[in-house]
Amino acid sequence: MRAVLVTEFGAPAHLAEVPDPTPAPHGVVVAVEATGVCRSDWHAWQGHDDDVVLPHVPGHELAGTVAAVGDDVRNWHVGDRVTTPFVTACGTCPECAAGAQQVCRSQTQPGFTGWGSFADLVALDHADVNLVALPEGFPAASAAALGCRVATAFRAVTDVGAVRAGEFVAVHGAGGVGLSAVAVAAAAGARVVAVDPSPAARDLALAFGAEHAVAADGAVEAVRELTDGGAHVSLDAVGLPATCEGSVRSLRRRGRHVQVGLLPAAAGKPSVPMDLVIAHELQVLGSHGMAAHDYPRLLALVAAGRFPLAQLVTRDLPLEAGPRALAEVGAATTAGITVLRP
Questions:
Q1: Would you say the pTM of this structure is higher than 0.85?
Q2: pLDDT digit string (tens) for 64-74?
Q3: To 5 degrees, how large is the angle CA 101–CA 103–CA 105?
Q4: Are 256 and 336 part of one and the same domain?
Q5: Which stretches make up the Enoyl reductase (ER) domain (predicted)?
Q6: Does the structure show a pLDDT above 90 at 251?
Q7: How many structural domains comprise the chain?
Q8: Is the same domain home to 26 and 83?
């Protein structure tokens, strides 16, 4: 099969012919129809994730058709159209038993612990726990966008941040996860302020339901002014020390910070203002994806026309453009989500 192969961290990836994967007894192999290009893939390429072993194929946001099924799989068959969370859970640990598969202690992750979906085929573990059936006619590009950024933003806003109608919500970063958070918060009736250095990203944030979109420089003061003293909920959708600290400082008293973007050690440690956390009784929360069993709530939001999923995908490229698209993530030269089409 063809795959985007990384042979040296930070060096240009290239399209290569590699062996086809085979399913584990509990897993499947999926023929990839579309796969998103995410900042997490960029981190893997840069060597920021200790799970990644070279040579490596990135990619963890995917949609496709089941092409092969392991002997122990009961609920899925060749020809089923599916997507999956980026955390493929074991289904048996205490966290999984409690329904929290997104923090499974024995999790695997395509594109991190193993080869991912920047390829014609990808192997997925524990299929009966992790696969999500796609509604008939659901576009592959839209489904690929669900797997990490949209699903992560949905749970971060609705469950972890517990956003309520009428609350002020600040979203720091208007890439794929940030735009998703803007749209989900707006659908919940919140009043959203988006923060991003890119004018194009800010324009998209307004189109996705933000009341205001402000530049990154001076963002804390701007957010506090626009929200009458600070946001009720603020999300860092980028994962940099500056955006993390800025998100916390954007809160009103008793506000809730949700960390969604990864904070790799290579970027430095964030300076979380714990004095404010104590004095203002702030909540500092983490959010890590969403379990497969939660997807029906998200699909219902899309089906009801309350989430503009199709508008989130702004570039649709062939697989051979993968190396270039991966490199562009670090420069943040495009707004919205880029998908590759094997």
A1: yes
A2: 999 999 999 99
A3: 95
A4: no
A5: 10-340
A6: yes
A7: 2
A8: yes
Asked if residue 171 and residue 258 are part of one domain, the reply reads: yes
Residues 84 and 175 in one domain: no
Q: Output the domain CATH number for residue 172.
A: 3.40.50.720
> Are 124 and 44 within one domain?
yes
- CATH number, position 134: 3.90.180.10
Phi-psi region of 113 (alpha: psi -120 to 50; beta: other; left: phi over 0): alpha
Whether the per-residue pLDDT at 332 is higher than 70: the answer is no
Q: What is the pLDDT of residue 63?
A: 97
Clarify whether residues 32 and 136 are in a common domain: yes
Angstrom distance (rounded) from CA 137 to CA 310 = 13
Residue 95 in tokens = 């966290």
**Domain of residue 70, residue span:** 2-149+290-341
Which single residue is written with the structure tokens 């070279």?
Answer: 54
d(CA 226, CA 210): 12
Q: Which two tokens stand for residue 255?
A: 């506000």
Between CA 11 and CA 131 the distance in angstroms is: 33
Residue 190 contacts residue 166 (beta carbons within 8 Å) = yes
Kindly state whether residue 28 falls inside one of the protein's structural domains. Answer: yes
